[in-house]
Amino acid sequence: xxxxxxxxxxxxxxxxxxxxxxxxxxxxxxxxxxxxxxxxxxxxxxxxxxxxxxxxxxxxxxxxxxxxxxxxxxxxxxxxxxxxxxxxxxxxxxxxxxxxxxxxxxxxxxxxxxxxxxxxxxxxxxxxxxxxxxxxxxxxxxxxxxxxxxxxxxxxxxxxxxxxxxxxxxxxxxxxxxxxxxxxxxxxxxxxxxxxxxxxxxxxxxxxxxxxxxxxxxxxxxxxxxxxxxxxxxxxxxxxxxxxxxxxxxxxxxxxxxxxxxxxxxxxxxxxxxxxxxxxxxxxxxxxxxxxxxxxxxxxxxxxxxxxxxxxxxxxxxxxxxxxxxxxxxxxxxxxxxxxxxxxxxxxxxxxxxxx
Length: 356
What we know:
By secondary structure, this protein is an alpha/beta fold. Helix content is 41%, strand content 27%. The chain contains 13 helices and 13 strands.
């Protein structure tokens, strides 16, 4: 069963044009002019239950707008959404019982009261029985180490402490889907690691479906097997993280430190036929560049077995940040991924028509 099913989703906004000067301000009082902005442009995707999916893109790409439509905060201009079998903006009361939401820059906790009191209020909002609430709260508090924070006012928590409490608040009613919009923004590496580990555990143990939007691609690498990439309101990539790396990564580099001055011609002879290239860094170091198709162990065996006196080896792979930045700067993903997406959508429509 699909946790999220999105077909041809579009969202347009009318944004007021502000004219310059006093005369312009007076004209705006009596006759306003608007520009129509399309934030999300006919996107389609499906997320099965239990998947952790990364939803990434530059600022203004349409990520948060999509999340707000999926959670029922915004009504789509056109298209179809089903989340847990519900249409989010139509069946609000039934729908919200099955989802949890964390917006990294907005809080669902009450600022001036203790954390535990916020949790109690949310229990009543979601109508969670007291015994279930206590059992769930004890488990979450223990896992995120919040025991000492429960009686503190939210305004006295650090950012990392507050985000851990936000996660607990979003999971108190045991939702099957968790929407996370920039959950680790502004956090230090220790708190980020704790939150990532926690999310992996609830996904593994409870089968919680997670849709994660973030600018921190280390979150994506740590949590997600699948990535949906947005650019200017359109999906330009939807697939596995490994496939993204293999298709657009420039490959790997292996840095060798030798006991004596290496001869590049000799190194090229050792790796002849593999499709690698060499460069000399200084008197004792050289770098071998490998396309993804080349097996690292084969290349290393050639060099080590060739009798070169090697003191140290370092393998460097292009990281996800560099790959995504290159895609956005060059637009290299757009044509191929859009074509692929169009084929998938066409097949889905044919299948729906056939079922009808």
